[in-house]
Amino acid sequence: MDPFLTLLHSFSSSLSDSELSSLKFLCRGKIGKRKLESVRSGGELFSILLEQQLIRSGEVSFLEGLLASIKREDLVSQLKHFVEEGEANAPDDQPDVHEKRLLKAAFEVICENVGRDWKIVMRKLGFSEVKMDRVVAANPFNLREQLAQSLREWQKWKGRDAKVTDLIKALRGCNMNLVADRVEQKLLSLNTGTR
């Protein structure tokens, strides 16, 4: 069974009638009026969105925006968790287990040590302004979460090409040598088995 469809099914069953109406209203620019009028459940709406490729396992930003608009933060966080667990992307396009572990450790260090200048690092990594704006809109008052989510999005975007060496190079390119050194120390401690 497709884990993404299972997730959508659980979302569908938790939507109230008024929430479904709101979702249908928000989709008016993407789905024709006649088609929307025939929708009676969240599952039917998600089916149309899947058919039109507005949502799919590897691209959930439209769905995330819809759920955030109807103030269903619980579903947004389930969706983010689904994406973070790597279930959203095909396993052959993901970094290997070892690289994922290193990336996660590097992300922790970067989130602890890079503050307001996080966008400079993300630009250095080739992350688009549009994606950064989307992340900021989703987390308007949480700087650390903006950075953490941007790093996860970058990893998703790069797939198996997401490497810790790119992060370190970007940090050094932004004159954040201390943070780059801390990332390297953390990775060294992981590789030698110390904490």
Question: Can you tell me about this structure?
Answer:
Helices cover 69% and strands 0% of the residues. The chain folds into two domains: 3-84, Death Domain, Fas (Orthogonal Bundle), CATH 1.10.533; 94-192, Death Domain, Fas (Orthogonal Bundle), CATH 1.10.533.10. It contains twelve helices and no strands.
CATH superfamily placement of the largest domain: Death Domain, Fas
CATH third-level topology of the largest domain: Death Domain, Fas
The count of helical stretches stands at: 12
CATH first level of the largest domain: Mainly Alpha
The string of secondary-structure elements, in order, is HHHHHHHHHHHH
CATH architectural name of the largest domain: Orthogonal Bundle
> Biggest sheet, in brief?
none
Count of extended strands = 0
Percent of residues in helices comes to 55-70%
Q: Average pLDDT value?
A: 87
Low-confidence runs: none
What proportion strand? under 5%
Q: Multimeric state of these chains?
A: single chain
Radius of gyration, Cα only, in angstroms?
A: 19 Å
Shape estimate: elongated
